[in-house]
Fold:
Amino acid sequence: MTIRPRLAAGRLRSLRRRLLTVLAAAVVVPVVLGAAPVGAAAGSTRSGEAADTSRVERVLVISIPTLSWEDLQLAELPNLNSLLDDSVIGDLSVRGVRRTTSAGDGYITMDAGTRARGSVAFDGLAFQVDERYGTGPAEEAFERRTGRAPEEAIFSLALPAVVERNEGLRFDAQIGALGDALGDAGVQRAVIANADRGVPGLEVTYGREAVLGLMDGAGVVPAGQVNEALLVDDPVAAFGIRLSPDAVEEAFDKVWNGDDRTVVLVEASDVVRADAYRPFVAPELRRDFLIQALEASDEMIGRLLEQVDPATDAVMVVGPYHAGGRTHLGVAGLWQEGQEPGLLRSASTRRSGFVTTVDIAPTILQLLDVERPSSMEGRPFERGSTGGDAAERRDFLIEANDAAKFRDAMVAPVAQAFVIANVILSALAVLALAYGGRRARGIGGFCALVLLGVLPATYLAGALDFHRYAEGWYWTFLGAVGLGVATVATLLARRFPDALIITLSIVLGLQFVDVVRGAPLQVNTVFGYSPTVAGRFAGFGNLAFAQIAGAAVLLAALVANRIGGRRGARAGIALMVVTLVMVGMPMWGSDVGGVLTLVPTTIVMGMLMLGWRIRARTVVWVGAATLAVIGLFAAVDMARPADQRTHLGRLVERIGDEGFQALETVVLRKLGANLSVLTRSVWTLMVPVILIFLAALVWRSRGRLRAIQEAIPELRAALVGLMVAAGLGFALNDSGIAVPGLMLGVVNGSLVYLVLAVRVGGTEEADDDARSEPARAGAGP
Structure:
């Protein structure tokens, strides 16, 4: 039974009409206004344009690891700030294979153009010919490890370990892909970096990971400098040493002006040293060391920029890995003469303001008009929206980074709270059925609607800047919106189970409206995605799909029941088809795993609602239909410009270049990720919660289950559809158990409401009699 205020019938009908009008306007108006993504907004998913159509002869890559946009506010950096204000800039997602990105991981990923991992212990071991390592020449150590003597200026001893490590991963990373592509095209490569560090009395740690960013498949870079000659003693600098601006400038002049086509990577190694020095100094001094390193690096950058020719050169600024002990977004920028400043994006992210480490190598290759190897999953930088003036662009990028960190910190608490709330809700439902009356059941049903209403609240929270305030305001907002959704649904309900229909419509409708508008509410929300995690930047995330699938399947059954007959069944199937289109269209949901899940779910559920029998050959037809729908969406994606294609289109491209091994890699990677989190995720608890609740219902409330089945026969088809969706959702989405777990959360809330609100015997009095019927039966005559 639902809770509703005691109003006169006329006032209640008037209130319902007004609320329905408001609700319709809230859904229809945003859809109409948002039919196209909001291109002017900083975070829009509007298709980008190439950063510049002209090609260049030389590319200077300035690497400033560990740096965030917020860090740039700490010091006076006239050279770097002037460069970035005239550039297309963005937040750089440095996520690789793991959430934490080491120096080796960042540079190897940059070089491979796809996610890869370094070897940690060996990543910094790069040397020049005639340097010593251990007790002998470094080139002898390289020959022992690789079987060949180095013929180039710089070589990495980490190569064998890095290759072996990535062979065991399912990303098909080609180590040295960028270096090989540049070398084959006759482009010179050079690295100038030295982040060596140590503590007096201890062995020095080599910090030359930057070599990994431009080395070829043989582990070498033809030119540059990484030896101790780049360093000078400085008693007030981190570890007592720093880069010599004169030595860096001299090394740069040799390689920059020696060849027509050149890529030179220069690392702000003093910033790396300052970050590594943090554990050895008092907290109040750490900022001073960073400021000193930034100012020294800015002086060095100013000298380098004096040798850049605007007519033939381009400059990139990248921060390929985050600082130690904290996960954040890095700095990215691209400057070319005549290019209008704005916000970066790429086909990988499809969202203005964000690019990834895997996009760096394709960008360098495009600037030099070199063909991108098919092994690279990244795509070139593009210019997205303008993002306002330089200050507004920086503010947006800083805010996005702060929001991402807040979101990542809240994911686990919100997920745990949602699961615990489902456990409590199920327990209260059992108690209400066993010992409560109509009022207790009404309160329990209302609480179920509140819990379901929290789901859209988590996305609406993305429109507000909760990262600026205390967490308590965030929790208060979630509760208030959930309460508001439940209240509106209760007021608008006219009969059983209208309140649940309205609530599920809000859950589903918000997702559809949002994705049509470019999915702004998916970014940095707990059940959406964040650029620090970098699993997705556009469309529906896995947890959003879980809610969509659960809500759509249940809503389709309820709508079919409300309309009735075959017309109702067709309406329910139509709702599932609309959901499939919203999930699968490349310009909207672009969720391949969602399509693979929803096609079988829709077919099975539709057949059951139409009264058709499911036979063994049905499985074949379901498989064929699934492939046909995926093929249709892939064709739509491939018909779009290359810079607008989603991961589905890029996967088709890779299959065309590499065969079905590319598809096998993706499938095995997803399965491996799913199984790895099965026993470590809080969402795993949702499975026993549902099973225990169902067992309790069968034991204590069979009459209510029969009443629900009689009132909503289509629910049986929905439950079968949900089983299919949960199983396939687990197998085909790399969030693993979180997908069926959250889906079951939607099911649990809905089932609690139905069990508590259904009337047994057709009247409220009969409902109470039915509850006490077992006691009377045992009392005797």
